[in-house]
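Table S2 (continued). Query chain:
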Amino acid sequence: MSTPILEMRDVSFAYRGERVLDGVTLAVEAGDYLAILGPNGGGKTTLLKAILGLVKPQQGEIRVHGTTPAQARGRIGYVPQRVDFDPDFPIRVLDVVLMGRQAARRLGRGFRPEDREAALGALARVELAELAGRPIGALSVGQLQRVLIARALAPEPALLLLDEPHAGLDERIGPSVWELLEELSSRVTIVLVSHDIGAISRYVRSVACLNRRLHAHPTRELTPEILEATYGCPVELLAHGQPHRVLSPHENEGSA
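Corresponding output:
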């Protein structure tokens, strides 16, 4: 039986004494496309930071490819929720994508021809190879998001992490990013966090719900029971366009 690409065992983490992750246990197999959903403040971004080794859990263990997050960092691609670029900063698209190769370079070492080749290949995978020489400030919001995904793909990771990859994208652009990720999931294991339940049900292969504690779900199908366990109140699932209640009556109605 193969070792999962990502394993978390009883992981807990607190900021200034406030518990953000509570006994999280999760196994992600190679080739999976997992979405983690949950409310704001539920620990989703902290979970990704723990996988990256940017925060150290006070309890539990995390293994990526059988080793520690710090040792595996060169094999993990990461797309943060927000990246601010000065539109007037003189940097090209290719240079931004090359930054994804930096983790594999020693301090002070320049990029090699194979780094440039990998960066151009990553741009081709997100269908932006023709924009390699364009200034980053000349891109649309959707193009910039694809460039950031290319940057995460440049080191040819085994695991790709994304924090709210559709955030800030309008309804015309958002679907194209989901479709891109679905195509990429055939080549790299993906874990993303999102609050977009509709997109999750259409594109991913499995779901986990997080609100300090993790409720894993081995398929893409979401049930009212797993959402109620996550959000702490009754939830009704809706088909798109159906005009009826999202939430059942409960004692906290009107406080949200």
